[in-house]
Amino acid sequence: MNNDIPVREIGPQGEVMAHAVDACVHCGFCLPACPTYALLGDEMDSPRGRIVLMKEVLEGGLELELAAPHLDRCLGCQACVTACPSGVPYGELITSFRGWSEPQRRRSAFDRAKRFAILKALPAPKLFSVAARFGQYAKPLAPALPAALRSPLDLLPEHVPVMEPSAEFTPARGQRRGRVAFLVGCAQQALAPNFNAATLRVLSRNGIEVVIPEGQGCCGAAALHTGARNEALRLVRANLAAFDPDEYDAILSNAAGCGAGLKEYPAVLHGLEDEAQARAFAAKVRDVSEYLAELLASGDLQPPLPASRPLTVAYHDACHLAHAQGVRLAPRQLLKAIPGVTVAEVPEGDLCCGSAGTYNLEQPELAGQLGARKAKNILSTAPDLIASGNIGCHTQIQSHVRRSGSPVPVMHTVEVLDLAYRGEL
Amino acid sequence: MSLKLPRLPEKWALTTTSRARKPASPGTPDNALAAELTRLLGDRKVLSSLPERRNYRYDAIAFGETPLAVVLPESTADVVTAVRAARAAGVPIVGRGAASGLSGGVVPLQEGLVISFTRMTRLDIFPERREARAQAGVVTLKVTEAARPHGLVYPPDPASFRTSTIGGNLGENAGGPTCFKYGVTGDYVQALEFVDEAGEVHELTRGAYDLAGLLIGSEGTLGLITEATLRLTPPPRHVRTLMAHFAEVGQAAEAVSRAIAAGAVPSKLEFMDTACVGAVEDYLHLGLPREAGAVLLVDTDGDDLETVEAERALVETACLEAGGEVRRAATDAEGDALWRARRSVSPALGRIRPQRMNEDIVVPRSVLPEVVREIRALGDASPFPVVQFGHIGDGNLHPNILFDPRTESEEAVHHLAHQIALVAIRHGGVLSGEHGIGTMKRDFMRDAVDPESLDVLRSVKRALDPQDRLNPGKILPGELEAPHAHP
Ligand SMILES: Cc1cc2nc3c(=O)[nH]c(=O)nc-3n(C[C@H](O)[C@H](O)[C@H](O)COP(=O)(O)OP(=O)(O)OC[C@H]3O[C@@H](n4cnc5c(N)ncnc54)[C@H](O)[C@@H]3O)c2cc1C
Ligand code: SF4
Ligand code: SF4
């Protein structure tokens, strides 16, 4: 799309945005992929519509506050990126736009307090853990609270586990095949410590030694996607300092959102002095399922023990795995490698579950509609087990599956694999 | 582990346009029309704020004026209300589907009302009559999806069928790859309901004067189509796919002429030239032959496998004789992938240059080789990349001029487009096969249609829309200025 975005005034992020806008031919192929368009059916809440809105705000022809409600409703799920034949990097556009526009936003004191709390608590596992436990006690009060306060509580599991820090070094068992660095993630440590424990066990069993470098922190995605660019830059640089890509075969994450965040570093630092460093770093980043599937492909994956009975596993594609990172096959291949497991495809599988980072907290109503729709679609496959590769999807799906009265367990892909290795599946 | 089936409130619909609660338009309407419509229809169905309205001023090719108001009707009655209000206010009305049109059809040339049909999505299938009744906003693909469990499909298949609406398909008389054997949208319309410029509702069948036929392809200039009865057919039992590639575009066209002369009636017969193949490869990575000058994609289908195979063999021989190399799709999945490649051509071209001028000419099949070669030569002699693809079986070609509006002259683009249009006309062809005339090709109408016939078209328009209220400035060359491709 032709545009007059004042790239010079905005700087390197302006280039990123202008490039994305340029690439869009407004063909509308992305419309049917977009969850908010699916719910609302209007142009402003479609990817094409949002690209036009952002272009016009950037050009100065439209007030930011007028466009903001529609841009805020974007989940950042990047389903539109998968659907777009012209290769529009929508993810980079919306992320850069949020970073550029946030300092100019007029937000209510309540909104600002909420955002501050989210941004502080998410990347600080200990703080998050405390907050989550506090929330757990507040849960019985939920029905009496306004929606904005109720939604985060609704998402908390019934039982918030005690945090177990992971060992800084996990040796390889048996023949040593590789050495990787692992990003432990933030909220996930507090909400689902077993994701990391299972990941370490599975890697180690496959002869991979795992280092959890000191000084690492939050990947920065939450800050970035809510527009807190300076905060994000600080986090990104801390990680660049903590992980030396030359030391490892790969840098692994087991949370789709974080993995996508890490792979985004070059775009975040575009035009800055550490861009090259970010490129070298991002080139080594893999989702844990990608890495394990590479072992599977080369015949190096230890065969898992068969499941105790035939199991249907509904695999949910996390947006940040499928759309942002393009990882679809790997987790399915791993699940199928377990004898006795059949992988069920979820109807409307490309539609976001509504979790999308902090979306649940900011747009509870739309998130709720999407969550219920996702639960219904998943359960329609009559699964014995639900697997996905992202903590956000995990909590969202678990909460909506439970709400619909189903007891089907929801697990991380690696947890399923771990159970199979232990003969407990 | 046991499974208890969930009982959830039916708050969603499984179409692209659920009736989920939509956040109301913020603020108060800033003009009288928007205020009146909001009073009549409520703020859920009327968009009046600036960012909302601004997003209804474009289609897949051009930008125009921001409308005063946008109505998202849910029923024919809502359309009637909106049309009457616009008439009372004396402003023009533009009907809009998914805005995937490529000729500027939904681009408002003046301030007025846009009626967007994306929420009119009721769809009923009547298997015993082999018919579907669809409201205008039903997404094309949904008709086949709903009909398939009854052993039926809806054949018209524009490349945009995941996005485009039945209303828009009717507005443009859309075709697609299957139209060579199975025909275009208009061939599947049994009846339709429309609202005229005065706000009266009419139900038309195809008897007596084929008024329904007149509305089909009229690009919203004669009436607003609210519902249609569509003919469904059982899908062919067997489909075979073949891909052939050639060193040069003219050879591909020759192969087509030979195959058809030999008596083959493929269900789909499409081609794309080397630039298209490259753009699609960049998107889908299917291993298409990038080095080829042109690629043909062919489906033969039917209920008798022997005939289907025999027809594929006829096409194969024709391709080999024309100097091509042939690859048969081994599996359905491989065939599907090849067709996905073809459907992605048009938007994938955005990877080469940000903007394009899209032609939609149709020429007699006998002259195809000359026409594609002449267009290739015009392209080579110009500073712009010119690419070609299309439903070559019908002689429907889409030469596209790719350009960058920031650095290249739109006038030069327009000139080249005109030259290409003249090639078609010189060889006995026409200006539009399926995308419509809209504003993009309006000026070439004078070359294509003689003045007397143009007068007849004008009097038809006057008879049905005396005040020129319905999508003014489209199709017929006249007073209003066509918009530039971009703002
Ligand atoms: C990538 C791409 C590929 C395409 N491939 C094809 C193809 O293979 N074949 C093909 O034929 N077209 C193709 N098109 C063009 C376009 O998709 C079709 O013309 C389609 O029918 C338009 O449908 P729509 O719902 O988007 O209509 P719109 O673009 O919204 O409207 C098209 C026209 O119809 C009018 N209209 C819309 N709704 C109504 C209504 N209810 N009543 C009266 N008039 C109405 C509008 O005023 C306008 O003039 C393609 C477009 C793109 C972007
Ligand atoms: S599919 Fe891509 S090019 Fe087409 S409108 Fe959407 S973002 Fe733009
Ligand atoms: S990122 Fe997701 S929600 Fe946002 S525009 Fe794209 S498809 Fe829609």
From TrEMBL, chain A:
InterPro entries: 4Fe4S_Fe-S-bd (IPR017896), 4Fe4S_Fe_S_CS (IPR017900), Cys_rich_dom (IPR004017), Glc_ox_4Fe-4S (IPR012257), Helical_ferredxn (IPR009051). PROSITE patterns: 4FE4S_FER_1, 4FE4S_FER_2. Residues 14-44, 65-94 form the 4Fe-4S ferredoxin-type domain. Binds 2 [4Fe-4S] clusters. It is an enzyme of class 1 (oxidoreductase). Its cofactor is [4Fe-4S] cluster. Its EC number is 1.1.99.14. It holds the Pfam family Fer4_8. GO terms for molecular function: 4 iron, 4 sulfur cluster binding; glycolate dehydrogenase activity; metal ion binding. Gene3D superfamilies: Alpha-helical ferredoxin. The keyword Metal-binding applies. It comes from the Bacteria. It catalyses: (R)-lactate + A = pyruvate + AH2; glycolate + A = glyoxylate + AH2. The keyword Disulfide bond does not apply. Keywords: 4Fe-4S, Electron transport, Iron, Iron-sulfur, Metal-binding, Repeat, Transport. Component of a complex that catalyzes the oxidation of glycolate to glyoxylate. This is Glycolate oxidase iron-sulfur subunit. It comes from Deinococcus gobiensis (strain DSM 21396 / JCM 16679 / CGMCC 1.7299 / I-0).
